[in-house]
Amino acid sequence: MKNSKSYSLLEELAANPYDLTQAKALEGRFASMKASVMGIDYVYACQRVNDDVVDALQKLADETAAVSQFSRMMGGEKMNKIDGFECEDRQVLHTAMRDVFDDLPEGFLSDTEAVAGAKTEIAKLKVFCDEIENGAITNAKGEKFKEMILVGIGGSDLGPRAVYLALKAFAVEGRKVHFISNVDPDDAAAVLKDADLERSLVCVISKSGSTLETLTNETLVASNFEAAGLNTKDHFVCVTGKDSPMDNPAKYLRSFYMFDYVGGRYSVTSMVGAVMLSFGIGFDNFMGFLRGARKIDLNSQERDVRKNVSLLMALIGIWNRNLLDHETLAVLPYSQALSRFAAHLQQCDMESNGKRINRQGEAVDFATGPIVWGEPGTNGQHAFYQLIHQSETVVPCDFIGFAKSQYQKDLDVKGTSSQQKLLANLIAQSIGLATGKTSENPNQVFPGNRPNSMLFAEQLTPEVMGALLALYENKIAFQGFIWNINSFDQEGVQLGKVLANEIIDIFTGKDVEAINAKEYLKTLGL
Ligand SMILES: O=P(O)(O)OC[C@H]1O[C@](O)(CO)[C@@H](O)[C@@H]1O
């Protein structure tokens, strides 16, 4: 990236970025600095960019063939690899999981085999959902299932949980979903205390079928079912990779598959999210969610950066990270339903782009993925916004908002509804961070020039949620393509797993060297 012509141009432009604090700085920018897709507006008026910067970013996208790389990924080219080194060496086809609507425009790429695999699993799922609905599948007493406990961690928990919470307003009447992820026994204990086991399905999710936390929790939950006199085969379904250690259909009421070309953190639109979401919010709503994601995948193949929203988000992220040197990105949804969305994006982005070598195995000479974090507004305003407004650290922010609430249950208090109050705060924060405020009192000076964007839609529906998810997934992929890093492996989490297993061996009395671990345990009295 750094030796491209467009990057030199961007460096020149970055010496004097657009000053959002000057008089009338925002005038006329809201209408012109907006890209829209599926009724979702991405407003970047409060970013430190002008048309010259956006043009240079377009050149960077062109020079790095970002869109072509994305299309080739969708077509099944192996994108998960490091040339010349041992690596996963795989295709990256989470987009095929939503390429199931027979809507391929001419000239667009698709991987027919992966699409066929996705369709097969969706068809199996539809049958399963109907059987639960019409009572063909029940508990031993012939009663219908009304709860589901999802057991999984990382990509097998964060995304599905974030989306379920986002769409809980659309829950099937009388149904509930619980989540167990942490190997902390209190996580499972708290859920099992509240769940009606007799009327519960358990959905165990692990792509590898070998994740310590998930296997431990599966056994723990199963022991509770057995203690209650329930046969786990009547209640447990699994989602796993074909031929993984968990691929044992005889053990489960139903087995669904995900594929090695779908990365864990990109798996929400595969069976990983599908089984639970179809149970919790209904099969049709799940398909609406998929449709939203699919529409964004198609938009992501648009060359013009002012029309390709994911690409624009990616490039503005690169401007902030590499040219303006901002280390983090706060995702701030003004929607309680999106309470776990930032946590999901944290994994999706940081596990993907927290890398320091390129796809040829050489060290990169620039920063890659930002630290991603966030909480819903207005709650966050009363917690960490002080730092965002007035500290030395500049934190770029992505605001997310909706014109209408989901439940449409609101009350006018002192002339405005709660939704209006929420929106007033959202817009106020975006402007305030950008423009800042002068004062005679140094303690009341707001420096401004805190870059932020806004993603805004009419209402958080299943389709809009699918779109939001794909906007960020594709943004992350675009950044990886432009940085020339592999966004699809996660070697960085392996070391911790190996070391934890060594310590588990110490606990079980095995003879391992692990001197540091032994001393550490002794200090802690363990
Ligand atoms: O689905 P699995 O194989 O249990 O993996 C769970 C998670 O563990 C990781 O491999 C690393 O934490 C994630 O990438 C993945 O989402």
Overview of this protein structure:
Catalyzes the reversible isomerization of glucose-6-phosphate to fructose-6-phosphate. With 526 residues, the chain is an alpha/beta fold. The chain contains 17 helices and 15 strands. The protein has helices spanning 5-14, 29-32, 51-63, 66-74, 112-134, 158-166, 185-194, 212-227, 271-281, 283-299, 309-323, 341-353, 385-390, 418-435, 462-483, 494-507, 515-523, and strands spanning 34-37, 40-43, 78-80, 90-91, 147-151, 176-180, 200-206, 236-241, 254-258, 328-333, 371-373, 397-402, 412-413, 416-417, 452-457. The strands form four sheets. Strands 1-2-15-12-10-11 form a six-stranded mixed beta sheet, sandwiched between helices. Helix 12 links the parallel strand 10 and strand 11 (371-373). The mean pLDDT is 97. Bound molecules: 6-O-phosphono-beta-D-fructofuranose. 6-O-phosphono-beta-D-fructofuranose binds next to loops.
Q: In short, what is this structure?
A:
By secondary structure, this protein is of the alpha/beta class. It is 42% helix and 13% strand.
- The assigned CATH architecture of the domain at 112-289 is 3-Layer(aba) Sandwich
Q: What is the residue-mean pLDDT, rounded to a whole number? A: 97
Percentage of helical residues? Answer: 40-55%
| Portion in beta strands | 5-15%
End-to-end separation? 49 Å
In total, the number of strands is 15
The name CATH uses for the topology of the domain at 112-289 is: Rossmann fold
Spans of at least 5 consecutive residues with low confidence: none
Large-scale geometry: globular
Going by helix content, strand content and strand pairing, the class is alpha/beta
Give the bound compounds: 6-O-phosphono-beta-D-fructofuranose
Which CATH class of the domain at 112-289 is shown?
Alpha Beta
Major beta sheet summary: 6 strands, mixed
Order of adjacent strands in the largest pleated sheet: 1-2-15-12-10-11
* Count of runs of 4 or more consecutive helical residues: 17
The Rg value, from CA coordinates, equals 24 Å
